[in-house]
YkgJ family cysteine cluster protein
Amino acid sequence: MKELLGRYGELLREVDRWFDGCIQRHGDQIACHRGCSACCRGLFDITVLDALYLRSGIDALPEAVQHSLRMKATERLASLSACNPSFVEPWILNRIPEKDWEALMPEEDETPCLLLAEDGSCLVYEQRPMTCRLNGIPLLDTSGEALMDEWCTLNFMGIDVAQLEDLRHPFLDLFAQELLLFRELTRRLLGEAVNELDTFIPAAVVLDAGMVSALRRK
């Protein structure tokens, strides 16, 4: 498991290098900076692969901080289970109908991410999920395909980003590699490869591989 998570970490660092390169070339058009937490609000789905990688960072925090996070996560998960009684340990979103996901993560939710420190920085910045690393600036594949039609409104204001070829990155290939790692993870934990297994950051605080393995079909 450690080796697989290490390979995923390398893939995540590739995203970081792309993002850093974009800042170097277009820093005057990018407001994102470490400590900015405007996007770190509400809930959003992350993969179980992200959750377990995130957990590796949480486990390295001081015990007092871990305890505080577990308390906050348990409280948040209880409120989510109250909202949808089917959303229970191990808190896998795919076990409930997708039409019910929106009620668990409404767009108007401005609750700060529980992994934010008082200064707005992320407590586990090096292990943050893929979504967190991709958020903020346009995602353009090297083919020219736009993979996301929204980004931070403070970035690239009034600019046709489609013309900025140096923003492009082989994202389709990167996502294919992510899927291969995810399928390998689920094959090890569940005995079969699946393409989707999603949860929330509060669940990642208390989730472990054993809980996921409990989903294995008998």
Observations:
- DSSP finds eight helices and two strands in the chain.
- The CA atoms of residues 12 and 130 lie 6 Å apart.
- The two ends are 22 Å apart (CA to CA).
